[in-house]
Amino acid sequence: MNALPKLTLSIVMAAASTVALAQESTHAGHGSHGAHAGHAASAPAELIEGEVKKIDQDAEKITLRHGEIKNLNMPAMTMVLRVKDPAMLTQVKVGDKVRFAADRANGAVTIVQLEKAQ
Fold this sequence. Notes:
Blueprint: H1 3-42, E1 48-56, E2 61-66, E3 77-83, E4 97-105, E5 108-116
Parallel strand pairs: 3-5
Antiparallel strand pairs: 1-2, 1-4, 2-3, 4-5
């Protein structure tokens, strides 16, 4: 009878250590994922070259002819894009050459950085 409680205790201890290792591994994964995400956010965005075709202040959108947007797997084309900050639209005019960074925000491709090209 003494062997059964020892066996039960051994099984419980083994299960507990497996759970503890799994939790530690999961937390470590989140920690490293968080660090990676933080690193990605602080990394400078690759700027894409484009040309302003139209500006719609009221809709907070700009039409650009642009090169490939690699981070969004998007080929070169002309398209309407939202801007993260409407003030960006006052810095450029139709015909200007620009450099910009875009990302997805609320399901839409959005310009997160915009500057006139030199």
